[in-house]
Amino acid sequence: MNLSSLGFFRSLRKDNSQFAVIGLGRFGRSVCSTLHKFGYEVLATDIDEKRVSQALTEQITSHALQLDSTESAALKEAGIFEFDTVIVAIGNYVQESIVTTLNVKEGGVPHIVAKASSEVHCKLLHKVGADHVVFPEYEAGCALARTLTKPSILDRFDLDPDNSIVEVIVPDEFHGKTIADLQLRNRYGLNLLAVSQDGKFQINPDPYKRFERGSAMVVIGCNKDINKLPI
Ligand code: ATP
């Protein structure tokens, strides 16, 4: 295990956002490189020495260590338990992913994000203490199906399985009508958050503003109500 990075991480102030990524598969590497590009300090780890050196060579992180995350002592020694957020990016090795998540939880890390590769894996990760579980293949499939069937939905943020914030193209039949005319809240159960104008969003728009064909609007509401929009 290369411990040269440890002094640096131990010296970081507590209120800095520090991330540790365990597992350098495609998912872990993309998390690492994006955090690194955004200027965050990331400690990347993997059991495979080659993946660790590759991460350093390709500069997707400035700090990387080889360790077996199923060994709690190795995680402790690497200072992983002192991180604010640990991302367990081991999707294809369910046992290793569960044991690692449990270790990190027992080590007292306040925020654990874990990658699942199946629904059962998802459930197990929650049971052993993951605060947030991502299931990228499933999420990407749902997103693709939505885009194919509802191309007017430009962007979507799922608040929970039943409620979302969506950016949609203003439906044709809304063109020329004011927000007050349409009574989005009464008729559709939706709250309008913003309307686009000349490429910029106007937040909490004036109720007498008229919708224009081709512009975008952002609404919040339950998915059933969002599906009732004539888009
Ligand atoms: P893919 O790369 O196929 O998209 P993924 O990103 O979920 O999938 P995995 O195939 O699950 O990645 O591999 C994640 C990484 O976890 C691998 O580089 C593997 O070496 C590493 N790994 C597996 N077991 C351990 C362990 N016990 N400790 C640390 N790292 C591990």
TrEMBL record:
GO-annotated biological processes: potassium ion transport
Coiled-coil annotated residue ranges, if any: none
Domain RCK C-terminal: 152-231
Residue ranges annotated for the RCK N-terminal domain, each copy included: 16-134
Source superkingdom: Bacteria
InterPro entries per the UniProt record, alphabetical: NAD(P)-bd_dom_sf (IPR036291), RCK_C (IPR006037), RCK_C_sf (IPR036721), RCK_N (IPR003148), Trk_Ktr_HKT_K-transport (IPR050721)
Entry's Gene Ontology molecular function annotations: monoatomic cation transmembrane transporter activity
Protein name: Potassium transporter
Protein's organism: Scytonema hofmannii PCC 7110
